[in-house]
Amino acid sequence: xxxxxxxxxxxxxxxxxxxxxxxxxxxxxxxxxxxxAPLAANHNHAGTVFAGSxxxxxxxxxxxxxxxxADAAEWSADLVLGRAEIRYLQPAHGDLAATATxxxxxxxxxxxxxxxxxxxxxxxxxxxVSGDDICARFHGRFVARGKAA
Length: 149
Fold this sequence. Notes:
Structural class: alpha+beta
Distance between the termini: 31 Å
């Protein structure tokens, strides 16, 4: 099974909201994860993507990326969102996509925490895109904390 399909299955099992939103993982590796959600399962009363779905999709992209990185590094870590802010720029009139990316600084912080089984705080900026339009910009601080041995 391709890595993106395995990640999608994991998401749907561990975070049931992702299944209800019909989230699909379209690309996934330890540097970047891209997810989509259709308008049909995430619309509001105005026929655009519900703001909560936009927030959730960004959270799911970030969590998925860190889960994939931790699993590849064979690090048993709890992953949580510690803080989040989202700025809605314009309505999303169609299916939505979000991509989370780890840069070198993020990977260094994660590797340092893995080596000491401590906590890493990773700030991710994730843009939510519908068609060619950036509809929202999400800034989340994700925390990866090593589990006690």
